[in-house]
Amino acid sequence: MDLPSRMRADLTAALRERDRDTARVLRTVLSAIANAEAQPAADGEPLSLRGDGPIAGASDGLGSADVVRRELTVEDLRAVVRSERDECLASAADLEARGATDVAAALRADAAVLERYVG
């Protein structure tokens, strides 16, 4: 089972068990993976500036704006997860230094959930 499939299965289990914290973390990292799979615009122009119709970024014709998503390697997927984990740990350290130990502990728990998928 590939990493995103494993995460989706774990998300389903977390939802069944009413483990909201784990479900939240898994939804966040699955969204980050989906964002990493998105293709950048070829010319770098934001979609919101394209088109000359009444709706910014609109294109005419069914499927005319569809693009194939990038296929991430296992290492790419793990890098996304590591990045999310590292962000949680950095935020936890910053918050703990400011005295918000409860929030820092919650972020460290989030990082521990992600640690299972780093490899």
How would you briefly describe this protein structure?
By secondary structure, the protein is mostly helical. Helix content is 62%, strand content 0%.
Span of the ends, CA to CA: 14 Å
The number of helical runs is 4
- Quaternary state of this entry equals single chain
Order of helices and strands: HHHH
Estimate percent helicity.
55-70%
**Beta strands, count:** 0
Output the CATH topology: Hypothetical Protein Yqey, Chain: A, domain1
Q: According to CATH, what is the class?
A: Mainly Alpha
Looking at CATH, the homologous superfamily is: Uncharacterised protein YqeY/AIM41, N-terminal domain
Class by SSE composition: mainly alpha
Q: Which outline best applies? A: globular
Report the CATH architecture.
Answer: Orthogonal Bundle
Low-confidence stretches: none
Q: Could you report the average pLDDT, rounded to the nearest whole number? A: 87
- Rg from C-alpha positions? 18 Å
Q: How many distinct folded domains?
A: 1
Strand-residue proportion: under 5%
| Biggest sheet descriptor | none
